[in-house]
Write a structure and sequence with these properties.
The complex is a heterodimer of chains A (about 170) and B (about 400). Chain A is mostly helical. Chain A has helices at about 5-15, 20-40, 50-60, 65-80, 85-105, 110-135, 145-165. Chain A is globular and about 50 Å long. Chain A starts with 5 loop residues before the first helix and ends in a 6-residue tail after the last helix. Chain B has a six-stranded antiparallel barrel. Classes of the chains: A mainly alpha (about 170), B alpha+beta (about 400).
Chain lengths: ~170, ~400
């Protein structure tokens, strides 16, 4: 893992993308997240909005941007369910903040780091979700750690495919 | 002071956003009288507005996707892939004939049921009007099993309307927007439907678990419940009319939290993970709809005499079976009582009614003789030249010889 100076990293690696990519990628992630489980016969052990949040927070190296994007996408996801609005919002807000903070300090081009980071943040998101639902709100929710683990693995695998595709959309100087 | 905000800007933004969301969550949860926390079943106007925005953003792309998908499928099915249509048409015609015969034979029972209900001042609600709708997207989360429909308030949908397919129940309308609606599937953790087991008539509450399986909870341990038994709606939940198919019992397990209770896992009759077109029950009335009455009249006109003759034959054979004395053979092979009538019926035949084996009834004999079951045998003189090979059969015991 290459640990570099913050200013150096900022100067060297902050990427920029066309506005259309910023607007369409989260929307597409939300639409696909809603559509794909139907096409895959109910299989929904993946979280495309989370992956988009992690990706943009990492490559932009901006915790505030990651926080805002995570919050927006999480709230949107909550609005599509019949659960309380804010549970996914908080989980993805934290994930976006952490990804943006980590992106300042590490080499985010490395595929292994991306894989591990996505896996860990996905697990963290699940843990925060369950914590809020069962402890903070005191609501009943059946859940299984094995399912959350599988979801994290799926997210990491999808990230390995998705992130290089999104890399290709960045603006070149 | 400025340096503090600049230095901890990221953290402060994070805390502010988290705090705002936590307050928003606290508003949505309320405490019940029993001391448990629960989500408000009716969204507050602000929450509903957020859901409405999300729906307005997500529904148009989903509808676009489905329209293009349906267009492609329609082009393929209606213009290209028409090879087996004639055979399918014949099969469907045969099915219609069979169903008409069944309907005609059941018509009298239905009328009698209606009369009895009227006498008992009990009014069963029949499905009067349905609206076909297309299932669009899902919530995208495995902890929230909801999906959207392409019909909404403008089409007459209201909350708590039942959503079904031809195979069985699917869920109920939870939220209605102007041009779309959100349906809560029956396999969600928060759903609930009153159900009844077809044979044992045991009632329970159907709900989903974390992995999306259907289970009936709140049933006391009962040995009579076996896999394969049909599960129907009980009709007491004010959502689903009585008697709609729910699924079949898959397995029965002990409730890990309550000793004397069991959990009955149910295999859903409807394909909940492959929903395409569904029917929303928009109206239920205590009488048959005009369409149903017309359909029944057609069935009676076309197949009435045939159904009546079948019924007469069945009646005659039943009377005959009751009058004739019979004994059950203890060595007879045990028939599989768990097989459903539909499984045991041959194609083209009517499924037999699930009934127990006829118990033998012995009529009182007017002139009993020694062959009458249960009578004392008459004394028989031993044959003078009995064959040596059959002494035991021809000679009754000594004690019975002298009355």
């Amino acid at each position: 893992m290459n640990v570099l100076g913050i200013d150096h990293r900022r100067d060297m690696g902050i990427r920029s993308y066309p506005l259309l990519v910023y607007a369409l990628t989260p929307l597409l992630a939300l639409v696909l997240q809603a559509l794909l489980p139907r096409l895959l016969h109910g299989y929904s052990w993946f979280d495309l909005p989370l992956l988009v949040t992690i990706y943009f927070a990492l490559v932009r190296r901006d915790p505030i941007q990651g926080t805002l994007m995570g919050c927006g996408l999480g709230l949107f996801e909550d609005a599509l369910t019949h659960h309380a609005i804010g549970v996914n919002g908080i989980a993805k807000t934290v994930a976006g903040f952490l990804a943006g903070s980590v992106g300042v300090r590490i080499d985010v081009e490395n595929h292994t780091i991306r894989l591990m980071l996505t896996f860990l943040l996905s697990l963290l998101c699940s843990a925060i979700y369950v914590f809020i639902y069962r402890v903070l709100l005191g609501l009943e929710l059946q859940w299984s750690w094995l399912a959350e683990l599988m979801k994290a693995v799926d997210n990491a695998v999808i990230a390995m495919v998705l992130f290089p595709i999104l890399d290709r959309t960045q603006m070149r100087d | 002071m400025d340096s503090f905000f600049v230095r901890y800007r990221n953290l402060l933004v994070l805390l502010a956003i988290l705090m705002a969301q936590i307050i928003g969550l606290a508003v949505q949860v309320r405490r019940t009288e029993s001391g448990r926390n629960t989500l408000d079943p009716q969204d507050t106007p602000s929450v509903r507005l957020i859901r409405l925005w999300a729906d307005a953003v997500i529904t148009p792309p989903e509808q676009l996707f489905h329209t293009s998908k349906l267009g492609t499928e329609g082009l393929w099915r209606n213009y290209i892939d028409l090879r087996s249509v004639r055979e399918q048409n014949q099969q469907l015609q045969q099915t219609i004939d069979r169903l008409r015969l069944e309907q005609a034979s059941l018509l009298e029972d239905a009328r009698q049921g209606e009369r009895l209900q009227a006498l008992m001042a009990f009014q069963e609600k029949y499905i009067y009007k349905t609206l076909a709708a297309q299932a669009l997207g899902t919530s995208g989360s495995d902890s929230s099993r909801v999906f959207n429909l392409d019909k909404g308030a403008a089409d007459g949908l209201r909350p708590d309307m039942a959503v079904i397919t031809a195979d069985g129940i699917v869920g109920k309308v939870r939220e209605v927007y102007p041009a779309s609606a959100q349906v809560l599937a029956i396999n969600d953790q928060t759903s609930g439907a009153g159900v009844i087991l077809e044979t044992t008539r045991i009632r329970g509450i159907l709900r989903g678990n974390a992995s999306g399986q259907l289970q009936i909870v709140g049933i006391l341990a009962d040995q009579r419940i076996h896999p394969g038994e049909k599960v129907l709606t009980a009709g007491g939940d004010q959502v689903f009319p009585r008697g709609l198919p729910v699924g079949v019992v898959e397995k029965v397990v002990q409730d890990p939290e309550r000793d004397s209770f069991i959990i009955v896992f149910v295999k859903p009759a409807a394909h909940l993970d492959r929903l395409d077109e569904v029917q929303v029950i928009t109206s239920t009335e205590p009488h048959f709809s005009e369409e149903m009455q017309q359909d029944m009249a057609t069935s009676e006109r076309l197949k009435g005499p045939a159904a009546a003759s079948i019924k007469e034959q069945q009646k005659a054979s039943q009377i005959m079976a009751e009058r004739l004395p019979g004994l059950t053979d203890p060595n007879a092979p045990v028939t599989d009582t768990t097989a459903t009538p539909a499984q045991s019926a041959q194609p083209g035949q009517q499924p037999a009614k699930p009934s127990e084996a006829p118990a033998p009834k012995l009529m009182r004999t007017l002139h009993p003789d020694r062959y009458t079951p249960g009578a004392q045998p008459e004394p028989v003189k031993p044959p003078t030249a009995a064959p040596a090979a059959q002494p035991a059969l021809s000679q009754p015991p000594k004690a019975e010889r002298n009355p």
